[in-house]
Amino acid sequence: MDITWGASASHEIAWGGMIAVYLFLAGIAAGAFLTAALTDLFGKNRPAKLIRAGAYIPPIAIVVGLLLLVFDLGRPLSFWKLIFNVNFGSVMSLGTFIISFFTAVALVYAYLIWTWPVAQARGIQITVAGVEAAAAREVPASGLQALRKPVAVVGSLLAFGTATYTGFLLSAVSTNTFWSVPFLGISGVPFLPFLFLVSAISTGLAATLIGAIDCSDLTLYKKVDIILLAIEILLLIILYTSVSSAFFQGGLASLFWIGVVVIGLLMPLILAIYGVSKHKNLVVPVCGMVVVGGLALRYFVVYAGQMVR
Amino acid sequence: MAKHYAMAVVVAKCIGCQACTVACKFQNNVPEGQYRTKTPVVGPKGTFPNVSMYFLKEACQMCQDAPCVKVCPTKASHYNEAGVVLVDVDKCVGCKYCLTACPYDARFINKDTGAADKCTFCWEARVSQGQAPACVSTCVGGALVFGDEKDPNSEIAKLLSKNKGEVRKEEFGTRPSIYYIFQGVK
């Protein structure tokens, strides 16, 4: 670099692809957990396969995400210092604790779901009155299984925290006009946590549906997915009108318009509305596109905020 | 009264010699290809008779409401006893949150330590010993003035009372301690 005559500050991209993928994985993990746990807690005829998929995705996604986070550090081996040096004013410091607890609870919940059928089978054996009755009704939770619903509740709160914190993490950078853009111009209410929460639930639900592909009746979930896609489109319209159009130009334009809007929102929305009642075999393409679009969204937001200032 | 260390850059006196850039590399053992301060050219721009060109010293702006300190998850970025923004290398994990928060691109990840790095006003080696930062001491044209802004008898207080000092990106409310005096330049 010719420092005498040339380049001023090099304008480095501090947070690159690893952080974008981490934000995406944290969103998937939180969304899948919410899908499984809320079904487990409130579902009437709970599709076991869907709960399983939604319980197994979060630990895998969040652990891979955490590894990316650690490897992205300038000093990966010192990551543990984040736990012992706390700054309550820093979203990242708070987030460290949210994702740590979420990871732990997600692992516990996955284990409980893993051992769930065993407990059910034992319940059936013990019941003398009749196998059919036992299978139809909820088996009285015994042993560790008694913890499953409380774990689902605590985990849902932590999943909500994980999904929104990724938004607050970026929106707390008040010197970044893109990341810190307020929601509908209301000062003090950042936009990104809303977008990231909806995107997290949408991608997490989509990933869970792919995992539960041969479940019989998923109409409710497909409808929720359509609603989430519609909300996300609304949110992106709000974002588009709230910030400078410079953020949607240049190299990021194709990522936004093709990746986020067309692949991630419009195509799955159209296909989902068309296929919700008729075609079961549209689940994988629709959900696959939602997941890819979610990744594109995180990439776009992470990079747009740093490329244009 | 508490001191407030500040620096004034008299832009019209800077000839772009980069003695500050080099002195900083000497003083602070900054890794190859990385800089705590540099002084790039702005321009030449405009057409005759309104052509202008000047040099603008860039470094940590020593904000009094520093975004880097606010976001740092481990309190590695902090204000020291004299209000100077410093990085505790031992506490820093290199998460780069401060790099995203700094609107002046003053920070980088030190290639050798992996920790966030930036100008320290030469606190350890010089300012805490009563000397001026290396860039100020070496400045050929007398473009850099350093001292306690709150001491009315200091050179910097006198300079700033007579000249309008501008701070960079005032809109972010970071309250920098580096003042740029553009008189005679733009």
Describe the overall structure:
The complex is a heterodimer of chains A (309) and B (186). Chain A has 309 residues and is mainly alpha-helical. Chain A has a domain at 17-217: Formate dehydrogenase/DMSO reductase fold (Up-down Bundle), CATH 1.20.1630. Helices cover 69% and strands 0% of the residues of chain A. Chain A contains eleven helices and no strands. Chain A has helices at 17-42, 48-72, 81-84, 91-114, 116-126, 131-136, 148-171, 192-211, 219-242, 251-275, 283-307. In chain A, helix 1 (17-42) runs antiparallel to helix 2 (48-72), helix 4 (91-114) packs antiparallel against helix 7 and helix 9 packs antiparallel against helix 10. The model of chain A is unreliable at 121-137 (pLDDT under 50). Chain B is α+β, with helices and mostly antiparallel strands. Chain B has one domain: Alpha-Beta Plaits. Chain B has helices at residues 19-28, 67-71, 97-101, 134-138, 155-162, and strands spanning 5-10, 41-45, 52-55, 77-79, 85-87, 108-109, 116-117, 144-148, 178-181. In chain B, the strands form four sheets. Chain B has a three-stranded mixed sheet with strand order 8-1-9. Chain B has a two-stranded antiparallel sheet with strand order 2-3. In chain B, strands 4-5 form a two-stranded antiparallel sheet. Chain B starts with a strand and ends in a 5-residue tail after the last strand. The model of chain B has no long low-confidence stretch (mean pLDDT 94).
